[in-house]
Fold this protein.
Amino acid sequence: MRRVHRLIAGMVAVMAGAPALAAAPSPSPPAMPAPLGSPGPLAPSTPGLAAAVAQETVRVTSTYRGETVTVFGVIPEASLQGADVIVTLRGPDQRATLHRRQRVAGLWINVDPVRLEAMPGFFARLSTRPVPALLAPAERDALGLDPAQAVRFVPALPPREAIVRRAALTRLKQTAGTWMAEGGGPQGPGQSGGLRLLGSGLFRADIALPVTAPPGVYAADILVVRSGRVVARTASRLEVVRVGVERSVHDFAHRFSFFHALATLALALTVGWAAHRIFNRP
Amino acid sequence: MVGVGGGFLLTPILLFMGIPAPVAVATQAGQVAASSLSGALAHARRRAVDLRMGLVLSAGGIVGAAAGVGLLGRLQQAGQAEITITLLYVGFLTVMGVLILGEALTAIRRRRLGHPPPPRARPGEVLRRLPLRMKFPASGLYLSVIPPLALGAGTGVLAALMGIGAGFILVPAMIYLLRMPTATVVGTSLVQILVVSSAVIVLQATLNITVDILLAALLIVGGVIGAQVGARLGQRLRAEELRALLGVVVLGMGLRLLWDLSVQPAVPFALVIG
């Protein structure tokens, strides 16, 4: 709800033409104006920042091969000096378990499962400079910039084990292509952070959603950072939805699983019978 | 072409393509049902089916399939389904590959065995003494229903776990264990495979939701076409060389699956979604 509130507050401010930061060009760190909506955990929403996701929905059809979504926005020129932008896109949480792989009789098998909660099925982070250079670790975690840090283990793990597992989870998700930091693949162009700020304060983040990104609501979080502090923040969202045949089949299989079973069986038997009639001529 | 159903080749291919093992084995049951139906109909026309025996085997098979599907669901929840299915296939493909290759090489070298293999021991007195005997007129048998029920159940479990018809176990067991006449064995086994694979589809799709109707359609149609192409090709090519090649491929698949399990993972952890 907080994100929604912040979005509404931001939109109201933009529509009212009230660029708060522009009105009060502030030295860093800026004195934050009183937030319009409910305050965020660390950074109050700032109406000066306008940003949005270009696509409101990504439609997963039967020929879907992934899609690039674009988050764009503009920082008021007055607060552009020394500002960096961080854009995150977080997909719906996924149910998952993390197993340790142990060698038993020469084979690597799964042992010690731990259930994961609040594990986003997709996460991307782009920034004008690498995030570790912009914010302190505590702040990064509080802002949800590292998805592994927010994951809860059930049962809870001792701290050292949790650190190992968070690192492993990050690597596995990055290898699978469903978590990405600094603009792309597992390594990414560490120098740039994958996001460019144009002179006029315009920024644009292209995020490639792989086929494996789960359907659901995706939350985009846009942060403007200056001197180690978040000075502006806004949110947007998009939805990845199954449509057409893809959706019908998925719904059919899950909601009417018995009829889905009968349909598959009928298909098999019809084809088998037809093959008999066509090919098994006496 | 080589006297096997061929379902066992499909799962490894699906696994290499990255389809989750539980989905691969469940969906493939559709292809098994389609091909066993056309096979069973062909045998039925030649009256080469012992329907009563087929139904007894099927009854056991349905129980086994239900147990197998339940077991698979548990394994999935425990995150062990992939490795169990893969290991079953490693063992199975390795044995099949060695058998097919060995047999083909023997044939190629024309090193005919002087005598046919000695007949197996009689189906021990134990089997004869079991209760609940039943007449199977089509096969000229009068025996307890317990062995066919148990045989059906065993292959039913395999059908659920591996998505195959398990005809390669069923047929020899029916000949040597139940002592059925060879004329009715294949047709009767196809009846059991048809019933069991149908049960597997329904159970997997309702309990585990691991059947994908679109993938099933591709496999079913592809399987039917492939069987015809194979039959035509088989008439033109030299059968022994072909079988040797198949043996190598099957063995290779088994070893490849084994290699994937034994190579040290880059990250010694595994993420299981769901």
